[in-house]
Write a structure and sequence with these properties.
The chain is an alpha+beta fold. It is 34% helix and 16% strand. The longest helix has 22 residues, at 324-345.
Length: 599
């Protein structure tokens, strides 16, 4: 690791020890929301998530001797209770694990898959692409869930506790209830119209036909029973048992209220689809940045390759000495270029020839970096390059715009006393997923297949993200672990936010590693997101700022986005300490907790 980076991280570690700390609190119910704190420092392990009850579930497992993998599963299960519009067993995700004993990083692709009968015309009706809203709240958008298989795979390989034990905190939380906060109510309100299409969703999430009141206790006894069943029988019941049958019936005959008039188009999910599902163990993406090793998830997600390519593009620029406007300009342009290549080259590698290694080569990044000018802005959409035949400042083929992805999802980050680390992002896609609750089971099904291109993004260019039988749609999820030159953790992080996940992780990393911000401040800093579009999205803290004015003067164009991403992270500190960090404001703030707070 370069000495300058090492000194910065040491200063950050020392300063982190004096910030306010948060310990684990028992899950709250009965009218008082569990207290959230965005940063915690201490020993014995750490958990950071968007929710205090979920973080507490992970801490409970760590206190009882479980490891980071055990705690990650417990936290994820609890998020399925308290964040049911962002995650749950009806969805999927990507799991990145650092093993302290071997000092290696392993990953699991738990992405949902299309039915085996799907083809490129999945979202075409009368020869034309469906409207996005029509596809979302339908059986067509539902992929085979991958989250339960991810849990089972992680625990079989690296866990130390049985699934039934790890589901107990979440089962208790679902049975006894959690306190509704403003975020939960507002997310319910945003989905109220389509939730009312489906009687089972209405009954569960609009109790008594009304929006849940802030401060009330929300209970989900159906989900508590479902978790208990998974604990007794294992996740096989979701892929080959009674629960599998319930999922198939719900997808193929969505239980819609006839009076709503909603055309909930049926899917084609079969028992064979669920029985054939496997979470994939695979090697991580890896690149180096400032002498550090940056590891993330490989395709089917584009997160690791796109963040890695952008970091390689930025490698030649000393961002620590740049002005704020100069830093943002370089970061925005690197994002723009990396997204151009993402759209052309990344899809499910089981179906597409994805040049992941070439996309992550420094040689290729250098050939793309020369497109960036200090006094001008690239015109989007930028055309992709050819990573197999890099040529300086060259582009290959026709540009294609970045397609829409839902902005929901949730991320958790965990470390344990042995030094193991998990960065895990899980999702049901859009906030509220498909809106379809499996009757009597207490969870919403995903709408993940809407991450496919409904039709080619550009008819003149091969689109690697068209649907196919058993294919995984491209994702932007980017759980990331950074190691030093001794292969010890420096920081681990991730975020929700659809395609803005990539820019959130990239900006947080560069703010922390290059700009010298403490981790919680790097997470809280106002964000910009450029995804090969005509305009760059800015949060209010940047929109209308002096830096934005400087950037506009050289050709940047902006539009306001009230909120981009919602990151969580952990940082390894000297002496066996961990720092957990989460959002201060976004999504109502996050919850950072440690087992034993530092004095």
């Amino acid at each position: 690791m370069r000495r300058s980076v090492a000194r910065k991280l040491l200063v950050l570690a020392v300063s982190a020890a004096v910030v306010s700390v948060g310990a684990a609190a028992p899950p709250a119910a009965g009218g008082t929301a569990a207290e959230k704190t965005p940063v915690a420092v201490g020993y014995g392990g750490a958990v950071a998530s968007v929710d205090a009850d979920a973080s507490a579930a992970g801490i409970e497992i760590l206190r009882k001797g479980g490891n980071a993998v055990d705690a990650a599963v417990a936290t994820a299960a609890a998020l399925g209770v308290t964040e049911p519009y962002s995650a749950g067993i009806g969805g999927g995700g990507y799991f990145v694990y650092y093993d302290a004993k071997s000092r290696t990083v392993r990953t699991i692709d738990g992405r949902e898959t299309a039915p085996l009968t799907a083809d490129a015309n999945l979202f075409l009706e009368n020869g034309k692409p469906l409207a996005f809203a029509d596809a979302v709240s339908s059986g067509l958008g539902v992929g085979t869930p991958g989250t339960p298989a991810t849990w089972a795979t992680a625990l079989d390989r690296w866990g130390s506790r049985k699934l039934g034990t790890l589901l107990k905190p979440a089962e208790r939380l679902a049975r006894d209830g959690f306190t509704v906060d403003a975020t939960f109510r507002s997310q319910t309100a945003a989905n109220e119209t389509r939730f009312r299409y489906f009687p089972d969703t209405t009954e569960l999430f609009l109790p008594g036909g009304q929006l849940p009141a802030v401060g009330s206790t929300f209970k989900n006894p159906d989900l508590a029973r479902t978790y208990a069943e998974l604990g007794r029988k294992g996740v096989g019941t979701l892929y080959r048992g009674d629960l599998a049958e319930d999922i198939v019936d719900t997808v193929n005959k969505p239980p819609v209220d006839p009076a709503s008039g909603w055309n909930a188009r049926p899917g084609e999910l079969s028992a064979k689809d669920l029985a054939a599902y496997r979470a994939k163990l695979q090697a991580p993406t890896r690149t180096t940045y400032r002498g550090l090793g940056v590891y993330s998830i490989a395709p089917s997600s584009s997160g690791g390759t796109t963040v890695g390519e952008a970091l390689n593009i930025l490698e030649r620029t000393d961002l620590s000495k740049a002005s704020q406007a100069q830093y943002l300009h370089r970061y925005i342009e690197a994002s723009r270029i990396a997204f151009a290549d993402r759209g052309r080259w990344v899809g499910d590698p089981a179906f597409e020839d994805v040049p992941a290694g070439e996309l992550l080569s420094q040689r290729y990044a250098d050939s793309r970096e020369c497109l960036i000018k200090d006094d001008a802005v690239l015109t989007s959409p930028v055309a992709p390059g050819d990573p197999r035949n890099p040529a300086a400042c060259a582009t290959a083929g026709t540009a294609a715009p970045t397609t829409y992805e839902g902005d929901s999802t949730t991320h958790l980050t965990v470390a344990d006393k042995w030094g193991n680390v998990v960065a895990y992002t899980l999702t049901i896609e859009q906030t509220g997923g498909s809106g379809i609750t499996v009757p009597g089971r207490g969870f919403i099904l995903n709408n993940e297949l809407t991450d496919f291109s409904f039709a080619p993004a550009n008819p003149a260019v091969h689109d690697p993200n068209l649907p196919g039988p058993g294919k995984r749609p491209r994702s932007s999820i980017a759980p990331t672990i950074v190691l030093d030159r001794h292969n010890q953790p420096v920081v681990a992080l991730g975020s929700p936010g659809g395609a803005t996940i990539i820019t959130t992780v990239l900006q947080t990393l560069t703010q922390f590693l290059d700009r010298g911000l403490p981790l919680v401040d790097a997470i809280a800093a106002p964000r910009a997101s450029q995804r090969n579009a005509a305009q760059t999205e800015l949060e209010p803290g940047l929109y209308g700022s002096g830096s934005a004015a400087e950037l506009a003067a050289i050709g940047h164009s902006f539009r306001l986005n009230p909120e981009i991403g919602a990151a969580t992270a952990v940082q390894r500190l000297p002496g066996g300490k961990w720092l957990a960090a989460a959002e201060t404001v976004r999504r109502g703030g996050g919850s950072a907790q440690v087992v034993l707070p530092a004095s």
